[in-house]
Amino acid sequence: MIDDAIRVLAGDCTVIAEDADRKEYRGRVTTIVKPDNTVLVHDIDGYQPVAWITRADSLSSNRRGDFTLVAKKDTQTLRIAAHEQDGFAHYPTSAAGTPVGACPDCDGALVRSNGVHCVRCGDRYGVPADATIRDGQGDCDCGLPRMRVERGLAFDVCLDRACESLDAAVSRAFDRQWACPESECDGDLRILRRGGLIAGCEHYPDCDTGFAVPAGVVDGECGCGLPTFETARGTRCLDTSCDRALDGVLEAESAADD
């Protein structure tokens, strides 16, 4: 579904804005009411509204005769009363984003903004923030674009998790590949989703060791025995609290020189 509708009210109006003081305006203005109850009152002059209230706690309106609208937030009150109504309309709206392809269900535009969604039918797909959408580089069999995501390796998967799961791909590559670093635990690290992807000990809850799988590719072994990852911020251990990642890199380089 499309997110909601933007309401547009136009006419000869009195606008009263009350907070620490009281300001009153009159003119032919256009009022925009966004789905989050943000109210913007625009006149002919400039780009800034003559009055506004952001994400009102309450909003009421009355369309009997000429419209009235009252928005309140904390100590702010915005009142709009039309003496002569020029127009009242609802327009479907969605978040705007970068185009990344076409929706296979309705041929609407797919855009990326806090995930990927279709501006026509509203279908949504969760996308990791670091993912690269591969528009025009070989769509999935379902018709959706594919994305490249680095989680230990560079994975090329469908936007739709139900079609092709990133979690399953990471699990196939790394499930039980690393031993739990706790000295008194003989468990392996499993790939699990707990909000995000983690490598967590198979003996949970007896052993609660777990690490978030970072955005990056495995490039060696840390001095603590866990893998190191090459990330956008440099090399780091799977364990963010570990300070031996550099030791592991130096040891690997030394071995390569022998």
Can you offer a commentary on this structure?
A seven-stranded antiparallel sheet has the order 4-3-2-1-7-6-5, with no helix packed on it. Mean pLDDT is about 90; it is low at about 245-258. The protein has helices at about 165-175, 245-255, and strands spanning about 5-20, 20-35, 40, 50-55, 60, 70-75, 75-95, 100, 110, 115-120, 125, 130-135, 145-150, 155-160, 190-195, 195-200, 210, 215-220, 225-230, 235. It is built from two helices and 20 strands. Helices cover about 10% and strands about 45% of the residues. The longest helix has 13 residues, at about 245-255. The chain has about 260 residues and is mainly beta.
SSE layout and pairing:
Layout: E1 4-18, E2 22-33, E3 39-42, E4 51-53, E5 58-62, E6 68-73, E7 76-93, E8 98-102, E9 109-112, E10 116-118, E11 124-125, E12 132-134, E13 146-152, E14 154-158, H1 166-174, E15 189-194, E16 196-201, E17 210-212, E18 216-221, E19 227-231, E20 234-237, H2 245-257
Parallel strand pairs: 13-18
Antiparallel strand pairs: 1-2, 1-7, 2-3, 3-4, 5-6, 6-7, 8-9, 9-10, 10-11, 12-13, 13-14, 15-16, 16-17, 18-19, 19-20
